[in-house]
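TASK: fixed-backbone design
INPUT:
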């Protein structure tokens, strides 16, 4: 792992520079995705079938996954995995129910009513990657908050399996989470289908879920025509650790993110040079034990960083600059330091709170802002699947009382039509007295 030295500002600047280099997208990807979106918009299902044949090597006769296929997945899934999904579901629901938002009505003065309604989105799509990146836990994390929000229809988009046999856990998770329809189409073409609608796939109000650079680019390009959750980058973890931390645990947690893909980032910040040395040795030892060693090693060598800080405050200052997706605080009395964290997607407190606890079981969401976007965005939640509609009611008397202020501002902004709309009501009132 590369070691970085310097001031907090210098190190933060170097990390941001590295981040920009890693996430720059080539123009050809943008252009390819744009062409795919346009073809699907114009040709619908025909384009989806053609792209699935070209990119996935699968010839489809229908886009929707049959209910019998989903039911059969329950017969194939391992009992332990089913039990884990059911337990995770309960934890996700029990956590996210606290995010359910109520509207309000306000009566500030005689004749005036103001308020806000919280309304669920009507239809959302969840994108679920296929192949080795098939994560049933992500199905639960995306669909269950939508159900709690009251979304009327949830559809799932996932690439068709090359061998014709779906990952059983993906389909089971979809059923457990209340997904209404599953469509076997992936990539940028599936994002286009959800954004524009085709004969088989309905147009949605929002698209959520992770995907490769083509999926991420497609989501970015359709945003504005449809809502999206975020443009997610590669996974990342930051670990703040003092001399009391266990180097075996720290190394394992760094590698738990590095194994995601070659672009994943793992950063350790510590006040202990002895811990830094021990973690570096442990990372090398544990790498040799991982089945995904090649991916994890490429990630650690390219993006793994160890930073020696001069103080506790400096450790937190640096991580706040990084704003990592996952932040582990492996120090004595970790909860005491939570208030020092300003920017992070999800925080894991204490030596036994390994990040995978959040990925799979705790109930907190694992769809998180990456690439420093935790400075201004939040984990996926119930609030992502609702919209807020405000309303106002003024009686005649209240409107007449407010008229001088409204007209003063309207004329100041040279919007005479706004002022006239109020004056017409004043005229009606004056005429009614005659």
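OUTPUT:
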């Amino acid at each position: 792992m590369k070691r970085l030295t310097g001031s907090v500002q210098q190190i933060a600047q170097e990390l941001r520079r590295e981040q920009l280099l890693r996430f720059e997208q080539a123009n050809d990807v943008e252009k390819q995705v744009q062409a795919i979106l346009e073809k699907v918009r114009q040709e619908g299902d025909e384009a989806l079938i053609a792209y699935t044949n070209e990119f996935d090597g699968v010839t489809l006769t229908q886009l929707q996954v049959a209910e019998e296929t989903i039911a059969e997945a329950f017969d194939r899934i391992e009992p332990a995995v089913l039990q884990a999904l059911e337990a995770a579901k309960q934890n996700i629901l029990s956590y996210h129910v606290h995010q359910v938002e109520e509207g309000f009505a306000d009566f500030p003065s005689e004749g005036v009513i103001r308020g806000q309604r919280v309304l669920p989105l009507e239809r959302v799509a969840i994108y679920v990657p296929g192949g080795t990146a098939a994560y049933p836990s992500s199905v639960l994390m995306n669909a269950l908050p939508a159900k709690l929000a009251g979304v009327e229809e949830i559809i799932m988009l996932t690439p068709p399996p090359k061998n014709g046999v779906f990952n059983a856990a993906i389909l089971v998770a979809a059923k457990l989470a209340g997904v209404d329809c599953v469509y076997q189409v992936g990539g940028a073409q599936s994002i286009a289908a959800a954004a524009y609608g085709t004969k088989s796939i309905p147009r949605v109000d929002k698209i959520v879920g992770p995907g490769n650079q083509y999926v991420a680019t497609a989501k970015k390009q359709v945003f504005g025509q449809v809502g999206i959750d975020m443009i997610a980058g590669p996974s990342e973890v930051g670990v703040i650790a003092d001399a009391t931390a266990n180097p075996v645990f720290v190394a394992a947690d760094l590698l738990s993110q590095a194994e995601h893909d070659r672009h994943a980032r793992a950063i350790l910040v510590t006040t202990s040079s002895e811990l830094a040395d021990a973690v570096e040795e442990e990372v090398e030892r544990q790498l040799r034990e991982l089945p995904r060693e090649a991916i994890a090693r490429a990630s650690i060598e390219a993006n793994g960083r160890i930073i020696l800080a001069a103080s506790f405050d400096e450790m937190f200052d640096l991580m706040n600059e990084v704003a990592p997706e996952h932040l582990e605080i492996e120090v004595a009395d970790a909860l005491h330091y939570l208030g020092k964290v300003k920017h992070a997607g999800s925080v894991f407190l204490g030596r036994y709170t390994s990040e995978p606890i959040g990925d799979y079981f705790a109930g907190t969401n694992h769809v998180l802002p990456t690439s420093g976007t935790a400075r201004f965005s939040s984990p996926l939640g119930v609030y992502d699947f609702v919209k807020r509609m405000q309303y106002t009611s003024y009686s005649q008397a209240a409107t007449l009382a407010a008229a001088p202020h409204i007209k003063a501002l309207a004329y100041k902004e040279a919007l005479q039509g706004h002022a006239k709309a109020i004056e017409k009501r004043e005229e009606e009132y004056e005429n009614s007295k005659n």
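COMMENT: Residues 75 and 168 are 9 Å apart (CA to CA).
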